[in-house]
Write a structure and sequence with these properties.
Elements (H helix, E strand, L loop, with lengths): L1 H29 L6 H28 L8 H53 L2 H67 L1 H5 L8 H47 L20 H7 L1
């Protein structure tokens, strides 16, 4: 026993020190927002863009209701529905911001210290199972730490391509809303000066030529906002999911761990440690 401790005391002490440092020093350091400032800034910019798109769609939906007749009502409804989808994107962005520090805390406070304890058990018992489990925990900890920064990087790469079109969609929506409000103000002034009958005489089939042109512009606004929504859904929702699946596949490839979700096929199966006869006796 004395010979064992003399030959392995350095390994055990080093592993204990690594576990303590991971829990007491690395975890508080790696959970500081300043460490992920670049990713946080990127998510903050994306959040502001989503809020601007939400405001633009809401304002456009309200402005189009000022037009005479019910021709533009379906467009107003579609514009109002976009706000709900933008809320989903906003929730995904907030979730990514929170997971930046949560995943690092889980890795350095739980997974890495536990891996050190498994390696100490491997030194004592010499069983390869402990070493394999330790390696798997380390790989999994590194993977969950890299998921959010990697997804933010990929999302930024895609968004840089479409940032100009998204900004143009926002500006186009703002301009169209201002023009619609100005046209409504002008029509109200004309109604006051010429009277209601004079105003209605200029309207054909419930909508004037100017209103028809405005409806066409709002259709373009709707198309632009839908395109911007598609880009935001891909970059904020789909890309993180694909990155998670990639890292899960990578962990499985390195460690041999298969992460599966429970399915319906598992229902009704007998536990491998329980025989059918035992189940009958239990009844």
């Amino acid at each position: 026993m004395k010979t064992f401790f003399k030959s392995n005391i350095a390994k055990i002490a080093a592993l204990l020190l690594l576990g303590v440092l991971s829990f007491c020093w690395a975890a508080p350091f790696m959970t500081q927002p300043e460490i992920y400032q670049r990713s946080i800034d990127s998510l903050q910019a994306k959040q502001e863009t989503v809020l601007e798109l939400t405001a633009a769609s809401t304002a456009a939906s309200a402005a189009i209701t000022l037009l005479p007749g019910d021709t533009a009502t379906p467009i107003a409804d579609k514009l109002a529905d976009l706000s709900g989808y933008f809320l989903i994107v906003l929730c995904a962005i907030f979730l990514e911001k929170y997971l930046l520090t949560i995943t690092a805390g889980a890795a350095f406070r739980l997974l890495f210290p536990l891996a050190c304890l498994l390696l100490i058990a491997y030194v004592f018992r010499g069983r390869k199972l402990f070493a394999m489990l330790a390696v798997k925990l380390i790989c999994f900890g590194v993977a969950i730490m890299l998921i959010i920064p990697a997804s933010v990087y990929v999302s930024d790469t895609i968004e840089n391509t479409y940032s100009a079109s998204i900004n143009a969609a926002i500006e186009n929506a703002k301009t169209t809303v201002k023009e619609a409000e100005a046209a409504e103000s002008a029509a109200s002034g004309q109604e006051e000066t010429t009277g209601l009958s004079g105003l209605l005489s200029k309207v054909t089939d419930g909508i004037s030529k100017a209103a028809a042109e405005t409806v066409g512009r709002f259709k373009q606004v709707l198309n632009n906002l839908i395109e911007a929504l598609a880009v935001m859904l891909v970059t904020s929702c789909l890309i993180p999911i694909l990155v998670i699946l990639f890292f899960l596949w990578l962990v499985k490839l390195i460690t041999g761990v298969s992460i599966q979700l429970p399915g319906r096929g598992s229902a009704g199966k007998v536990h491998p440690l329980t025989s059918p006869d035992d189940c009958g006796e239990a009844d």
